[in-house]
Design goal:
The protein has about 300 residues and is mainly alpha-helical. It is built from 16 helices and no strands. Helix 3 crosses helix 16, helix 4 runs parallel beside helix 8 and helix 4 runs antiparallel to helix 12.
Length: about 300
């Protein structure tokens, strides 16, 4: 490339920048590009004894792996659990996260605001192994906090084994995820709010607007693009559960409502070593995610004149 003084191009500085990018680029190739060849396993009769070369040399299997998945009697319940937990979770989490971000933004004292943000961000950095253990302990029949409170209030006579009751699992998964991620989810919204010009609020104050009116007529319209993008991403990722959370909270008693596609992929792919089935169901998830992404973006463009593209 020719040196362009007008654009300030400097080959030496560009080489330094690309050198800084090199480790990340290598990791991207190793963990994101090369594994794409594994998608071939969905269409092959692969045996693990064939090793890496078997990815290319195994006999073609057609769509048999997809037929096995879709004919599995457990596939329907797994799909329902995956969509149910995500749909209900997003319908609750997105409005609640926006509301919580608005409340944090209304805190006048910078020190107290920083304190609230720190406290609410902290659960995000606790692993699900630890946080899930806390949830299981809280719901335990043997001195668990929730059962103790309910018995003290005489709402129940004896402890309820929440983790052993399938009908409670969706609620447990959704609420525990909210407790852990609510504060962290406000980051983008608060960042968007910080870019709103203070002159708009000052003009609203002169007109006698209340805090609620300023939130409705200034803050919410200003963060609408961010909300739209987050909703589109949520719809596109509706087939992806938080694997760590589900796997930690899952047990043989609640399996009927806790088995989702991500945990099924783990069990089939890594525990049973049926990589062809795991690859096939991943392709199914990816195709559905792409369809949902384009559909959500198109609907968003029509309704709000905003979208990813």
């Amino acid at each position: 490339m020719k040196k362009n003084k007008g654009l300030g191009y400097d080959s030496k500085s560009q080489l330094q920048l690309h050198s800084l990018m090199l480790p990340g680029t290598i990791l991207l190739i190793l963990f994101n590009i090369i594994p794409l060849f594994g998608l071939l396993l969905a269409f092959k009769n692969y045996d693990i004894v064939d090793g890496f070369s078997g990815v290319f040399t195994s006999a073609w299997y057609g769509l048999q792996n997809f037929k096995v998945i879709f004919s599995n009697s457990n596939f329907g319940p797994m799909l329902v659990n995956t969509l149910g937990i995500n749909l209900i979770g997003n319908l609750i989490a997105i409005p609640l996260t926006i509301f919580f971000a608005l409340m944090i933004n209304e805190i006048a004292s910078p020190r107290f605001k920083s304190f609230v943000q720190t406290i609410t961000y902290m659960p995000h950095f606790i692993s699900w192994v630890v946080f899930g253990g806390i949830i299981i302990t809280m719901l335990s029949t043997d001195g668990g906090m929730l059962n103790t409170i309910l018995m003290k209030l005489h709402i129940i006579k004896s402890g309820i084994p929440f983790m052993a009751k399938p009908q409670y699992f969706w609620a447990i998964a959704i609420i525990s995820n909210l407790l852990k991620e609510l504060g962290w989810g406000t980051i983008l919204y608060i960042a968007a709010m910080s870019g709103i010009g203070q002159e708009q609020y000052e003009a609203a104050d002169l007109d006698g607007a209340t805090r609620l009116q300023k939130m409705i007529h200034i803050t919410l319209p200003a963060i609408e693009p961010t909300v739209v993008i987050m909703v589109i991403f949520a719809i596109a990722g509706i087939m992806n559960n938080n694997f760590d959370q589900i796997y930690v909270l899952q047990n043989p008693f609640n399996l009927g409502r806790s088995e989702v596609i991500d945990t099924y992929i783990f069990k089939v792919g890594l525990q049973q070593l049926q990589f062809g089935l795991a690859a096939a169901i991943n392709i199914f998830k990816s195709i559905l995610a792409i369809i949902l992404l384009f559909a959500a973006n198109k609907i968003s463009n029509k309704l709000t004149n905003q979208g990813l593209f």
